[in-house]
């Protein structure tokens, strides 16, 4: 007689199937390098750094932001890149990042990857990722601001990074990046702007 | 007349000094490889993976555990390795990991690295790291269990990993790793044990 699978065991099977698949995010390379310029950054370590950004810069968030929810969002936010890869914000003259094609591919990736989880977790993780992508709630707006700040520091410290790769101008940086940082974290953008402006001859 | 520094600006100076220094954790290599065996894992991406473990395996924690505190602990737990490096658990026949010398070096590293932060954050981050290291509170015990589980999966999926490097026996795995996982997450260890036992000829 076939054994009935223990529900506890099948749940752990699904939990570890997801965790093992998630390991692949460490092999997705971004356009940005580490701060020392030694190699390209991967999306796993980028996600860790952003979670740390949220812990450190919590006092810059509006009072209605839950930093613990922001941290969870940032831990999940790039998982779809396992299937889709990272789309650099300055590539295709700034147009590739938010293309409808990219968005559809990311939706399919989210279906597959979060679908590995037990149903309750698949639902709650997907809801958190959808919220991040929509960039409307205070938590998502702050999380998106941090996601835009961190590569600016990496470019600055590594001597230009993707600004050089994609011949980015100050106006492009301000419209593609600065305005989005300022939306969720205006004082952070003021501080970062003062650091970065001289690089662009300002 | 010299300008008085804006306290808001000096605070952000310190916050970013810490975040930029933290970037170096991405260059600290562990003995363990990625699950596909393609390269050694670094401590930054490892910390991200553990935070995801906490989110996914939350239902395995005792009811008095705060998963959000566990996530924060895991994000911080390896930062001292920027100065000290990773000490593989199976190296020096299992004796190097908890040596007094290693512990003293980690304390000095924590002084320096958390000391980059504004005083309030330096204090709260250090307290969370001290709590993790002491492994006494329910949050720290669960966090430590996850930190022990993840390399087991990486070794299993990559075909042996550090078990092969350090000629680890089943009894050594059970005493150095299994007992610590079982302390915080007994059902996870039961599940993992069933996956791993055949590798050791069980
Ligand atoms: Ca990102």
TrEMBL record, chains A, B:
Pfam families: HD_3. InterPro entries: HD_domain, YfbR/HDDC2. Residues 22-189 form the HD domain. Keywords: Hydrolase, Metal-binding. GO terms for cellular component: cytoplasm. GO terms for molecular function: 5'-deoxynucleotidase activity; metal ion binding. SUPFAM superfamilies: HD-domain/PDEase-like (SSF109604). It comes from the Bacteria. This is Hydrolase. It comes from Fuscovulum blasticum DSM 2131. The lineage of its organism: Bacteria, Pseudomonadati, Pseudomonadota, Alphaproteobacteria, Rhodobacterales.
């Amino acid at each position: 007689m076939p054994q009935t699978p223990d529900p506890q065991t099948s749940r752990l099977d699904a939990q570890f199937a997801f965790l093992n698949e998630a390991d692949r995010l460490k092999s997705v390379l971004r356009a940005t390098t580490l701060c020392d310029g030694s190699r390209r950054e991967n999306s796993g370590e980028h996600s860790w750094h952003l979670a740390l950004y949220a812990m450190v810069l919590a006092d810059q968030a509006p009072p209605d932001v839950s930093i613990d929810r922001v941290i969870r969002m940032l831990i999940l936010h790039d998982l779809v890149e396992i299937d889709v890869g990272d789309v650099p914000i300055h590539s295709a003259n700034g147009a590739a990042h938010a293309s409808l094609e990219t968005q559809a591919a990311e939706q399919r990736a989210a279906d597959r990857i979060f679908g590995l989880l037990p149903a309750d977790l698949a639902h709650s993780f997907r809801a958190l990722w959808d919220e991040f992508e929509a960039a409307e709630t205070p938590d998502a707006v702050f999380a998106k601001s941090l996601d835009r700040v961190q590569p600016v520091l990496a470019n600055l410290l590594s001597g230009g990074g993707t600004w050089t790769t994609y011949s980015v101008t100050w106006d492009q940086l301000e419209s593609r990046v600065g305005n989005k940082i300022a939306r969720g974290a205006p004082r952070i953008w003021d501080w970062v702007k003062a650091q970065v402006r001289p690089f662009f001859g300002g």
